[in-house]
Amino acid sequence: MDAILRVEKLSKVFESGFIRRSLVKAVDNVSFELSEGEIVSLVGQSGSGKTTLAKIILRLLEPSSGDVWFMDKNVWKDLKTLDDLKWYWKNVHAIFQNPYASFNPFYKVDRVLNQALKLIGKEPNSEEAKRVIEESLKFVGLGPDEVLGKYPHQLSGGQLQRILIARTWIIKPKLLIADEPVSMLDVSTRGKIIELFDIMRKKYGTTILFVSHDLGISYVISDRIFVMYQGKIIEEGSPDDILLNPTHEYTKELIASVPTLYRKWSF
Ligand SMILES: Nc1ncnc2c1ncn2[C@@H]1O[C@H](COP(=O)(O)OP(=O)(O)OP(=O)(O)O)[C@@H](O)[C@H]1O
Ligand SMILES: [Mg+2]
Predict the structure, then answer these.
(1) What is the mean pLDDT of residues 54-63?
(2) pLDDT of residue 1 exceeding 80
(3) Fewest Cβ atoms closer than 10 Å to its Cβ: which of 29, 121, 148, 173?
């Protein structure tokens, strides 16, 4: 399969400390490729550099060194104009942990779906736009009357996260970066969202980089798992390789920290 994303020797150093300045290598010489239609989980403890890496790929945070290639474009060197960036964010889309942060509390939730329509060049409020919005909500299991015309505070976190998936469904990005998209949700909503990711991959060939703390979910949905530790990808392989035959001490510790119920159930 062709690589859709290529990350080459990527590093990000932050200066930290108020009284004594020190340098933190949040991402440290990371290289990998993602193929079309692959689901890859990026796991690792808090502070290991997962979100920093995701933000650099999304072109939200500039790397200290290294390159990100998406298709044939060098993301930090070739994309310069607003149109270039719009093109990029149409093709590389993100869903974050806290769905509330993606909505403006003063606007009805319909706005994020209308913005998605604009991004793909469709006129909001047209008959076609209405049809696409209804189809997108149906895809995520929401009725239009349940959510349209409401403000974010009138909906649950699970409903808001599903609206954000409806937005992703409208945009149909080539690459979806989901940074802990289910960690705030209850188990059944979590299951549904994971299922939707799988359908998007199968139906539209979406590549998904799934950032997670949860090895259980990563095991179930991924083609490959990357284990990140202190800014480096220290181990990568199939879910069976990583969870049944981990080679790195840190991966073993990470697996040992998964609740026993999971271990009995999936191993
Ligand atoms: N803007 C920043 N300025 C300084 N240091 C930062 C900044 N953002 C992140 N860091 C540091 O970089 C390291 C990696 O942080 P990052 O948020 O990428 O971790 P993470 O793996 O996503 O953690 P979590 O699982 O808690 O979300 C941490 O040590 C963090 O304190
Ligand atoms: Mg994070």
Answers:
(1) 97
(2) no
(3) 121
